[in-house]
Amino acid sequence: LALTSASFPIIQAAFMQSMMTEPRPDPARMVPMVAGFVLAVLIVIVVYVLANGALYVAAVDAAAGRPVDMRRAWRLVLRPRIWGTMVLSSLAFVAGLFCCILPGLYVGLLFSLVIPVMVEEASAGTAALGRSAELIRYNPQGGIVSDPRGKAFLIVFVGMVMSYAMVFFLQLPFMV
After folding, report:
1. At 92, phi and psi to the nearest 5?
2. What is the three-state SS of the chain?
3. For the chain, which terminus, N or C, has the lower number of CB atoms within 10 Å?
């Protein structure tokens, strides 16, 4: 993840440097440069998502008391059913974001346990998405403090802040 995060400003700098060399870039040269930039960014995003999924699998194994095997984690994440479920979850999240952001955040919380469900219960697709939503809604005490959605939100929020801080410190030397 660190290498992937560090590669983005390098790609961006190479693209911007090629754009800034001429006073007015030639449109015929712009199309392949923009296409190359978009392709590089898509590759970085795919690698980042796969690496994040592999880390989730390893974390689930560690939490379950099993030895952490990164080869197993990568093999599991690269299975078409698992990858398809992750894409389906992401598409639902993005569709929710298009509906005024809050529905997207809620869908993201509902599907925050998809990878652990796929690892522990060996399910995929809509079954894994439904099971994740069922687990995240389960609140037998009925209180706000014990609501798993609030806990999931806090975990995701703190994780994202920490992730952005790490990415910032990794990218800072390249930005300077």
Report:
1. -65, -40
2. CHHHHHHHHHHHHHHHHHHHCCCCCCHHHHHHHHHHHHHHHHHHHHHHHHHHHHHHHHHHHHHCCCCCCHHHHHHHHCCHHHHHHHHHHHHHHHHHHHCCCHHHHHHHHHCCCHHHHHHHHCCCHHHHHHHHHHHHHCCCCCCCCCCHHHHHHHHHHHHHHHHHHHHHHHHHHHHC
3. C
Of 146, 144, 122, 148, residue with least CA distance to 135? 148
| Residue 86 pLDDT level (bands cut at 50, 70, 90) | very high
Residue tagged 């999931």 (tokens): 152
pLDDT tens for each residue of 157-168 = 998 899 888 878
Residue with tokens 């015929």: 28
Q: For 115-128, what is the mean pLDDT? A: 95
Query: Who has greater pLDDT, 68 or 21?
Result: 68
